[in-house]
């Protein structure tokens, strides 16, 4: 007999406790969560017990029962009842609770979810007179329920409320040796976090959006479209709303610039992380910040919020200097060139900024220097001396990656300034033997340089106080909260804000004349300076925390700078700055490659998306459909084609087109008279409910989840048409013709609602639909007010325009061709390395892409591989005593790759002053 | 629904005196008013009780192993089958099909309560299948047809026609 378990899997707690308690003889093997132990199940199921007969048990409860039975304790009827309750009522609620607590960081909502079952358990226990659930001794029911409860009960951070009897019973069972030992084995003292990797592999509970918050009712079937029961009241209310008609005030798409906060309105300031200028953004960058922020901004404007959306390119720093050297241009020229590229890409993607600026402006200097002086005057800056290598020939301090020499540990002659590739040890650049400047090959000298540090520890208490408020009142994504917490947990250290560089905002202090601000002190100030370039009254947005709500959009690697470093600068400046209220961070978007290219996936870049011939709206749709909300997701060409063909063409487009065609073909282009029957009211109610869900989710910036509700509506619509068959009824008698008319009229109005809901996602398609139907623009804001109302926009007699298909099929060969063109071969890091020569050829530039502000883990992975391969190549050449020129060329290539890797990993190629301090 | 299922089971078991039932909560969980003790809650719990009442313990499995397997499928019925979404159905059918590849009954070599309850639970899903799909899940269909014709099992559910000859010889459709 053999028991298979996996770490951090709460169900394994049950079986291990039962095993120890019963003393049954059995081998235990720990396997991966993904391990397929039970041959007939499609999804891995653990724990699993291989019985002597060769059969498998895959239910933890059945395994526990079996162990108890073999040891002579058959389960009683009361026991059966507890086990059934545990499986059908308690587990679904627990699954949801764990999902919230472990993955979503919403521990505070757990008590609500578990309240029902816990109350029930408490009540039952309060009536009993025995110490255990079913009697005087421990039974299988005690073990199973204890284990189910253990993860949430043993975590003190979840305040689950007073359940006196449950607590007493739980503590009694926890005291048993078998249970203690099982808990240690499974969770290893890591508490809820120990279950993270297990939970990530579980399908998300579907009940979170259920209207019914009672946990016992949260069966997935309820959220299944077909089975959602619509009550009479709902239908009545939907029919009533339907007849309300449009607001009289028309919706204007023209904005009056400059937009400024207004009294009595919801004033929302949206920023998207500033893309680093020296590269073409890739799809991950686009979905991570600008596209997400754009969808939210478009939605906000529909909701009639007074909203300003600003962004711009982040232009200072070493990376720009390097790029300039590579391309033989000045840093300013590089910035001008790439700023234009960025602008045109975002324009193509229809990113509707109110203002898209840049950081290399006079305002940037003014505002950064002002904040600097205020911090200085208030004693939040400290001075430290740092030792660095300086190349007198190049007249600059050398970044760690720009110097190499002999490793002080293993004497390897080509050690880098920060790490030796041979022994792998970290090196302080000043310790290198025979150091060389990588640019000119001269020997640098050690110079001490004074730098300024932002005294984060001094601001920590203030920061924490503000964070408590902001994270609890605002909508911070789970990852944003988590990353911020981990920074605070490790304790804040002073952070250097100056750099020995030329391309940056000059430090105004006379003692630090030759220096500029470190990009991360300076870059977020870009939000302020860009707004200042948009309007002189920028302070109405940025020094107005009482009127303004600030949303920051970014990918998760940018979180600490927005939640810790930048807020500290602003808090320390004590100038009533607007601090972030809602920090919205995505996970990463990865690239899924075809099977024949296992090792390296490749990105698709902003400027290439256009060349595919696939419309911008479809790109937007697919990226938003994949938006890495809550977990990483992967881009795939095949999947994109599938989503286009199934969701856009067959579902959404098909419905809208059919609705329009019926009006055109059967009713001469005029919306027919409608007489609502029960069935029509039901559709109105279903659609209205989806609309409300959409609004609730969008208000919380759950952009991807909200999109699903749009697609649900067109599914309801298709089904409604399919069942009612207006194309048949139109040929029938008067009653039947009226029926056909009603169904057509309702459908075309649903399509109109869809055009509104689609607007944030697919602005062009949205407009096209309204154009085809001649829909009044006022429908845009009417239906999205308040909690959302679905009204009849196109009433009987309204004449629609010419209807034509909205989407095109993406054919397999077309997508295959694109995959070949853009994915793989020419862009793998390896080929990038082998084609690299003095000037970088175009395909290699592609591999150069860095994510927002330079960090790109996907690329780092590719480059790590490329560095390793190139390193091997060099070693082989050296072992073969190849010609010096050949080796030098290969070494140069290796160094270049390493430099790229450093950038991709987000390590600054500039000197790291703190390292010098350690000496 | 669950109550009709329990009364079918009573008929199958030949229990003369019908029991008194009620339901609890929005999910209409069946409750058996038990004269000899506190009420019993839950379909599986009540069904097991009826089997014991009828003194047919073999229906819960004839060995410790089979008893565990029976309980496992009973739990599967109420915690998986009863709450699955449309997408889940395909996976469930696929898994069951593979499981039943070399089996006549769900547990051991005899008809058990597991067969009865899983049959009842899967009936609405099988109703929705096209002929072609039924062929795709050939083992499930074979088992299903066998159980629905098992004497005394099918009381409250309509029979489902299963074709004996294969129409679709391969899956290329």
User: Can you tell me the CATH architecture of the largest domain in chain A?
Assistant: 3-Layer(aba) Sandwich
Q: According to CATH, what is the class of chain B?
A: Mainly Alpha
Number of spatially distinct domains of chain B: 1
What's the total number of strands of chain A?
Answer: 20
Q: What is the level 1 CATH name of the largest domain in chain A? A: Alpha Beta
Please indicate the percent range of residues of chain B in DSSP E strands (runs of 2 or more). Answer: 5-15%
Helix/sheet category of chain B: mainly alpha
Could you say which structural class the secondary elements and strand pairing of chain A correspond to? alpha/beta
Number of helical regions of chain A: 34
Describe the fold and architecture:
The complex is a heterodimer of chains A (919) and B (173). With 919 residues, chain A is α/β, with parallel strands linked by helices. Chain A contains 34 helices and 20 strands. In chain A, the strands form 6 sheets. In chain A, strands 7-6-5-17-18 form a 5-stranded parallel β-sheet, sandwiched between helices. In chain A, strands 2-1-3-4 form a 4-stranded mixed β-sheet. Chain A has a 4-stranded antiparallel β-sheet with strand order 9-8-13-14. In chain A, strand 10 (403-406) and strand 11 (415-416) form a beta hairpin. In chain A, helix 3 (77-103) runs antiparallel to helix 4 (110-127) and helix 11 (318-327) packs across helix 12 (331-348). The longest helix of chain A has 30 residues, at 637-666. The radius of gyration of chain A is 31 Å and the shape is globular. Chain B has 173 residues and is mostly helical. Chain B has one domain (2-148): Glutathione S-transferase Yfyf (Class Pi), Chain A, domain 2 (Up-down Bundle), CATH 1.20.1050. Helices cover 49% and strands 6% of the residues of chain B. Chain B has helices at residues 2-13, 43-53, 64-79, 86-99, 113-127, 131-136, 138-148, and strands spanning 21-24, 29-32, 40-41. Chain B has a 3-stranded antiparallel β-sheet with strand order 1-2-3, covered by helices on one side. In chain B, strand 1 and strand 2 form a beta hairpin. The radius of gyration of chain B is 17 Å and the shape is globular. Chain A binds chain B through residues 39-43, 51-53, 55, 57-59, 61-63, 65-66, 69-70, 77, 80-81, 83-85, 87-88, 91-92, 206, 212, 214, 216-217, 219-221, 223-224, 226, and chain B through 25-27, 29, 40-45, 48-49, 52, 64-65, 67-69, 71-72, 75-76, 78-79, 82-86, 88, 91, 94-96, 98-99, 101. Chain B: Residues 49-171 form the GST C-terminal domain. Chain B: Pfam families: Arc1p_N_like. Chain B: InterPro entries: AIMP3/p18_C, Arc1-like_N, EEF1E1, Glutathione-S-Trfase_C-like, Glutathione-S-Trfase_C_sf. Chain B: This is Eukaryotic translation elongation factor 1 epsilon-1.
